[in-house]
Amino acid sequence: MMNGLAAPSATCCLPRWASRSAPRPRPGMPAAPPKWMTSIDRTTPVVALGPGAALSGVNPKNLALSVTAAVAIASNGLSGGQQVASVVVFVLIGSLLG
Question: Which of the listed residues 16, 28, 43, 62 has the most CB atoms within 10 Å of its CB?
Fold first, then answer.
């Protein structure tokens, strides 16, 4: 299977790789990081929370487990405090096992 994919991949990718427009650094000189990577140094934890939450929520396994837990907790007729405690336990277990 891998051999069947290697030839088409090489045919598509090698010309693009050979003609890339970004100049390579001279020997002994450090390569300049991309702009998006340098912006990470200036990112605050509050700003990083949004993409982090979005990327973890998009994961199908996490999404399925979270929806299942939410339905189980909401449908059991627990009081508000018990629901909060259940969510805290779910998050702690998920953090330790995830």
Answer: 62
